[in-house]
UniProtKB/TrEMBL annotation:
Keywords: Glyoxylate bypass, NAD, Oxidoreductase, Peroxisome, Tricarboxylic acid cycle. InterPro entries: L-lactate/malate_DH, Lactate/malate_DH_C, Lactate/malate_DH_N, Lactate_DH/Glyco_Ohase_4_C, Malate_DH_AS, Malate_DH_type1, NAD(P)-bd_dom_sf. It catalyses: (S)-malate + NAD(+) = oxaloacetate + NADH + H(+). The active site is at residue 222. Residues 48-190 form the Lactate/malate dehydrogenase N-terminal domain. Gene3D superfamilies: Lactate dehydrogenase/glycoside hydrolase, family 4, C-terminal, NAD(P)-binding Rossmann-like Domain. This is Malate dehydrogenase. It is an enzyme of class 1 (oxidoreductase). Pfam families: Ldh_1_C, Ldh_1_N.
Length: 358
């Protein structure tokens, strides 16, 4: 019997089950890209987004939240483990995005082909007593390989890097893209949104405000003293005692460690990170759509300081980062913090560059 929407019923059912199982696809002799295209026609108009590391602590809630984002028409979930289960689960949500799963390195290229935005939370998290830099030995190689895939399959995509240490993994990504001849500094962004999310929350707590009314710029990088909240520039404008400033700065800088210790060996921030990653990815997509005044903090290739990468407020647009804002007036406490941040950042950036160019 012919069905409305094209194809007979048995073919349509085969197509739907194949979309959930890449192995069935190969048996049918169709490439996953062919299938992706035919499925995408049924989805809503919007952007194509891939999550690399989609089965992890961050990856799973991030997949859930991106499936809920109306700007996403196609959502590719890639990991080296467990993507069939995560994909099956998320794909039952009755939202517009079409979800497809990709398992293992042989499926990386299909996962990346045609993507507008690639979000990378792949890699190991901290345990108590570790610094983010202790993750370098494992995560540097993971990010390098994934970025080589991006260069090959979706060189024009916006890339959001979550994997730690962000202060080094973003420079690694830049070097991989340079080597491949695909580097566009406007499209590479390290995700520091969680620092802003925490800063807004902790400041709101101290001031007795709704966190949604607070906006704290956080600049520098994403580890310890490189996380530099600019409390003198918060919205709404407020002043703090020196005790409040010291307490808030330290709590924001150590927010990640606070979660690592509370989880006691079970990992680091995942739920608040997924929330922050979606907030940031949504801003990138709104920028791509052409919305005006989309401004967020991110760790990007930058000339704001003498360092080649730095986190500050950026304006997101159709080409990615369209404007990077200067730091504005800093008070004495922040100026001292900036010097400490730059010193540590310089070493982490250099470490990433030399890893990728060796
Ligand atoms: N930028 C930020 O603000 C934050 C960054 N992070 C970082 O995010 C990363 C992930 O954290 P979690 O999700 O908690 O870790 P997790 O261990 O729960 O998940 C990581 C996932 O990556 C996958 N993976 C490993 N190697 C891969 C590869 N080569 N290709 C694709 N996937 C691969 C694993 O199979 C796993 O599913 C860590 O490096 C962590 O430090 C965590 C919180 C905040
Ligand atoms: O602290 C960690 O290891 C994870 C992270 O980057 C954060 O929560 O800010």
């Amino acid at each position: 019997m012919k069905q409305h929407g094209g194809g007979d019923a048995s073919h349509r059912i085969a197509r739907i089950s194949a979309h959930l199982d890449p192995h069935k696809l190969q048996m049918e002799g169709k490439t996953s890209l062919e299938l992706q295209n035919c499925r995408a026609k049924g989805g809503s108009s919007g952007f194509k987004v891939a999550i690399l590391g989609a089965s992890g602590g961050i990856g799973q809630p991030l997949s859930l939240l991106m499936k809920m984002n109306p700007l996403v028409s196609v959502l590719h979930l890639y990991d080296v483990a467990n993507t069939p289960g995560v994909t099956s689960d998320v794909s039952h949500m009755d939202t517009g995005a079409v979800v497809r799963g990709f398992l293992g390195s042989q499926q990386l290229e299909n996962a990346l082909t045609g993507m507008d935005l690639v979000i990378i939370p792949a890699g190991v998290p901290r345990k108590p007593g570790m610094t983010r830099d202790d993750l370098f030995n494992i995560n540097a190689g993971i990010v390098k390989t994934l970025c080589e895939g991006i260069s090959k399959c979706c060189p024009d995509a916006i890339v959001n890097i979550i994997s730690n240490p962000v202060n080094s993994t973003v420079p690694i990504a830049a070097e991989v893209f340079k080597k491949a001849g695909t580097y566009d500094p406007k499209k590479l962004l390290g995700v520091t949104m969680l620092d802003v999310v925490r800063a807004n929350t902790f400041v709101a707590e101290v001031l007795g405000l709704d966190p949604r009314e607070v906006d704290v710029p956080v600049v520098g990088g994403h580890a310890g003293v490189t996380i530099l909240p600019l409390l003198s520039q918060i919205k709404p404008p407020c002043s703090f005692t020196s005790e409040e400033t010291a307490y808030l700065t330290s709590r924001i800088q150590n927010g990640g460690t606070e979660v690592v210790e509370a989880k006691a060996g079970a990992g680091s921030a995942t739920l608040s990170m997924a929330y922050a990653a979606v907030k940031f990815a949504d801003a990138c997509l709104r920028g791509l759509r052409g919305d005006a005044d989309v401004i967020k903090c991110a760790f990007v290739p930058s000339v704001v300081t003498e360092l080649p990468f730095f986190a500050s407020k950026v304006r997101l647009g159709r080409n990615g980062v369209e404007e990077i804002y200067t730091l504005g007036p800093l008070n004495e406490f922040e100026r001292a913090g900036l010097e400490m941040a730059k010193k540590e950042l310089a070493g982490s950036i250099e470490k990433g560059i030399s890893f990728a160019t060796k």
